[in-house]
Design goal:
Elements lengths: L7 E6 L6 H5 L7 E3 H9 L8 H17 L4 E4 L5 H13 L3 E6 L4 H9 L9 H14 L10 E4 H16 L4 H18 L1 E5 L7 E6 L2 E8 L9 E6 L9 E5 L2 H8 L9 E2 L12
Parallel strand pairs: 1-3, 1-4, 2-3, 4-5
Antiparallel strand pairs: 6-7, 7-8, 8-9, 9-10, 10-11
The chain binds zinc ion.
């Protein structure tokens, strides 16, 4: 049984920092219509509020063209306003597709904390996050009445995601494991990535290898919050023991820093001698 049928229009509804984009990334890239990426497309800056009108224009144009081809769209925006949601529901129904609302359930405190940790250009004022959160709480009971054919909360979808993640982490298909590397590192780097150690009960370990250069990476799943799951790169132990020591890598920029020996020493944790940050602190 599928929670959300395809094709359909999936409308993410959540405050800034509620985990929308992380969840949206579990759908294929071409499904995802995100205001941030269209802001970036027209202005070079994903956080440029000045570019919002252009971004909305592009999102609507791509939505319309995809729906006319009967393709699923996942609208990754806060979608706090009733008139915005109404337009999306109408677009879906005009093309005889279902409209599904995915309501993010992250508590306000978590949204605020995630928002506070964002880079300057992607952070919104705290009052805005609070207002978005309140608008969504008020709208939630009325979503079916707004015309949505399906209303689901992300915690239900998270179960599905956990299952997917488990199959990625286990000894399952090469394709699924490759998809994880592609999602984090992008297409080009994923081509250079191979899992090298897949042992039951241990985090999977792989390596990015190009010519004689390589970086060893482990995928850590110890946090109860799947959004905290991440890759770590192997680096020399700061205490001078043979290691291995590890530092979190969340992006290709982090990988470059590891390659250049320019990573934050405070985040390094040695598996062998315990030098550096503790597991809890990182
Ligand atoms: Zn050590």
């Amino acid at each position: 049984m599928h929670l959300i049928p395809e094709p359909s229009v999936v409308v993410m509804i959540g405050a800034s920092g509620s985990g929308k984009s992380t969840l949206a990334r579990t759908w294929p890239a071409d499904y995802r219509l995100g205001l941030d990426s269209y802001r970036c497309a027209v202005s070079g800056d994903a956080g440029s509020q000045e570019a919002s009108a252009d971004a909305v224009f592009l999102l609507n144009a791509v939505l319309e063209r995809r729906l006319s081809r009967g393709l699923t769209c996942v609208v990754d925006a806060t979608n706090t306003r009733a008139d915005v949601r109404k337009r999306l529901v109408e677009a879906a129904h005009a093309h005889h597709l279902a409209a599904a609302a995915v309501v993010m359930t992250a508590p306000l405190e978590q949204c605020l904390a995630r928002n506070a940790h964002r880079p300057d250009n992607r952070r919104v004022p705290e009052t805005v996050v609070r207002r978005q959160y309140q608008q969504i709480s008020l709208a939630r009971p009325g979503l079916h009445a707004e015309g949505f054919d399906h209303v689901v909360t992300d915690d239900r979808l998270l179960r599905l995601r956990l299952l997917l993640q488990r199959s990625v982490d286990g000894d399952h298909t090469e394709d699924a494991r490759r998809a994880l590397a592609r999602r984090v590192f992008g297409e080009d780097l994923a081509e250079a990535f191979n899992w090298t150690q897949l042992r039951p009960g241990h985090d999977p370990v792989g390596a990015l290898t190009v010519g004689g250069d390589d970086i060893t990476l482990a995928y850590r799943t110890w946090s109860p919050d799947p959004m905290q799951w991440r890759f770590e790169a192997q680096v020399p132990c700061l205490g001078g023991c043979p290691g291995p020591a590890w530092v979190p890598v969340r992006s290709t920029m982090d990988l470059l820093a590891v390659y250049d020996d320019d990573f934050p020493e405070a985040a390094v944790r040695c598996e062998c001698c315990g030098a550096g940050a503790t597991r809890e602190a990182v």
